[in-house]
Design brief:
2 copies of one chain form a homodimer.
Chain A: H1 2-21, H2 24-48, H3 57-66, H4 71-99, H5 106-124, H6 128-133, H7 135-154, H8 158-182, H9 188-215, H10 221-226, H11 229-240, H12 243-253, H13 268-291, H14 300-339
Helix pairs in contact in A: 2-3, 2-8, 3-8, 4-7, 4-8, 5-7, 9-11, 9-12, 9-13, 9-14, 11-13, 12-13
Amino acid sequence: AEKVLRFPGEVGVTMWEMGKEDPRRVIHSIKVGLALTLASLLCLLESLSQGIGQNAIWAVMTVVVVLEFTAGATLCKGLNRGVGTLLAGLFALFVEYLTADRPMPRAVVMGWTVFVIGAAATYMRFIPIIKKNYDYGVMIFILTFSLILVSNYRIDNTTKMARDRFYTIAIGCGICLFLSLLVFPTWSGDDLHKSTIAKLEGLAQSVEACVGEYFGDDQMKEIQDELSKDSIDQNCIKVLDSKYTDETMALYASWEPRYRGNCYKSPWQQYVKFGVALRRFGYTIMALHGCLHTEIKTPPSVRALFKDQCTNLAGEDLNTSLQSQPQILSDSMNRKDSRI
Amino acid sequence: AEKVLRFPGEVGVTMWEMGKEDPRRVIHSIKVGLALTLASLLCLLESLSQGIGQNAIWAVMTVVVVLEFTAGATLCKGLNRGVGTLLAGLFALFVEYLTADRPMPRAVVMGWTVFVIGAAATYMRFIPIIKKNYDYGVMIFILTFSLILVSNYRIDNTTKMARDRFYTIAIGCGICLFLSLLVFPTWSGDDLHKSTIAKLEGLAQSVEACVGEYFGDDQMKEIQDELSKDSIDQNCIKVLDSKYTDETMALYASWEPRYRGNCYKSPWQQYVKFGVALRRFGYTIMALHGCLHTEIKTPPSVRALFKDQCTNLAGEDLNTSLQSQPQILSDSMNRKDSRI
C-alpha cells in the first residue's frame, strides 16, 4: 500500500528532475500545446465559415506529426511532408487524367494503381540515400496518393479537395515552422557542438586519470579520486556509443538554416568525421586503461624515466589543448571546410 | 547528355542489386502494395453500402503507417496505435461528459483541454521508458484526442464517430498484422541472431589475422591475404558501431510472439548484453591491431618463444569455439536466462 501511495510522488519527482535537467523540454511541451490549440481553433473558424471544411483536421494532424524537439528535425519533416503531399496530389491528378476516358471499371484501375505505386514507392524507401533523408516524404506520398484516389472515387471534385488539403497542410506546417524556428528555437547544431565538447572533455579527463593512476602521482591523486575506474570507462563508453545520436543530430543540423556570422555554412559533416576520430581515440584509451590492470608491470624505477614527459603530455599539453579546443573548434572546422 | 542517358540504367542496376541482396525487401514492397489495395477496396465497399463512410480512409492511413519491414516493428506500432486510439477515444468521451453542463463557451473549453493534454502528453514522451516503448502510442493519443474534440465541435454524435474510427483502425491493423505475421513474415529476432553470428565470425577472423600478421606465420599467410589491414578494421568497426541497430532489433524482437520449441521466451536482452561484451572485445582487437604498427617491436627470437601458444589460441581454440558458438548460442542463452 505504501508503494502505491509513493508511486505518484516518485513520478512527480522524475518529471520535475527531467524538466530541471533540460528546461527546453518544458518549452517544447508548451509549444506543442500551443500549436495544437492554434490548429484546432483554426479548424473551428474554418468550419464556422464553411471555408475549408472537413479537410481542416489535416492541420491538426500535421502539427502533431511534424513538430519535433529540434528546429532541424521539424524543418526536415515539414518540408518532406509538404513536398510529399504536393507530389502525390499532382501524381493523382495525372493518373486521373490518364484513366479518365477508359472503359474499364474504375475500381479495377484504382486497385491496380494503388498496388503498383504503393509497392514501387515502398521499394524505393530501401535505397540508402532516400531512407536517410526522404523516408518520411515517401511515406506521406504513398499515404496522400492512396487517400486522394480513394476519396476521389466518391467525390468528383478532386481538384478542389487536393487544393484544400494542400492548403490545410501548409497552414499546419506554417504553424510548426513558426513555433520551432522563431519561438525559443532548439537547434540540433548546438546540441551537436555541445556533445562534441563534452566528449572531448571526458576523453581529456580519462587520459589524465589513466596517466595519474599509472605513475601513482600525488599531484594527480585528486583527479584520480574524483574519477574512479568506472567513470573513466563511462566517459569512454559514452564517446564510443555516440555514433547514432551524432549522425542524427548532424542530419537534422544540416537542414537548419543557420549561417553564422562568418558566412560559412556550418560544416556538420566535419563534426561527424571528428566524432569518428574521437571514437578511435576512445578505443585507445580503453586499451590503455585495460593495460593498467595487467599483472606484468614495469618496475617503478623504469617508470620514473619517462614519468615527466607522459605526465606533461597528458596533464598539460593534451588536456589543455583539448579543453581549449571548444572555443576554436567551430572556427577551425569552418576553415577546414572552406579549404576543401 | 551521356550521363543523363546512363542515369536510369544505373538506378535500375542499384534497384536490382538491392533486391538480390535481400529478397525480403521485394516481398515487403509487394505486401505493402497488397495491404493498401485491400484497405482501399474495403473503403470502396464501405462507401457503397454507406456503412462506415468518411472514416474509412483511416484504414488506409493505418496500413501506410503501421506496416513495417519486420513483424516485431509492425506489432509494436499496431498495438501502440490501437491502444492509443482507444485511450484517446475514452478520454475524449470523459472530457465531454465533464464539460457537458458547464455554461462556458465550448471553444474556450476545447482550446484549454487540447492545450493542457497536448503539453502534458508531449512532456511524457521525454520519459525514457515511454520514449523507448510507447512513443508512437502517445503521439497517436494526442492526435486522436485533438481530432475527436475538434470534429466533435461540429458533429454531435461523438460516440458513433469514435466507434467507427476505432473499427476502421482495427481493420487496418488487422490487415497489417495478418500480412506481417502470417504471410512470409520477417522476424527481427532472426536478424538479430544472424547479425550476432556475423559479428562473432568477423571478430574471430580479425583475431586470427592479427596474430598471423604479428608472427609472420606462413600457415596464416592465406588468411592474411584475404583479410588486408582494412578489412580487420572494417570487421571491428562494424561490431563497434552496432549498438543502435542491435538495441532496435532487440526491442522489436521482444514484441514478437515466438516461443521456440523449448518453451522459453527468446532472451533478446541477453543478445544485447552479449553485444556489449562483443564490443568490449572489439576495442581490444582494435588496440591489438594498433600495436602491430608501432615502431618498437619485440625481436623475432623473443616472439618465437610464445608464438605457438598464441597461434593455437587464436587460430584454433578461440576461432573454433567462436565459430561453433552460433549453433549453441541461443540454447546457452536460454539456459542462462532460465537460471537467472
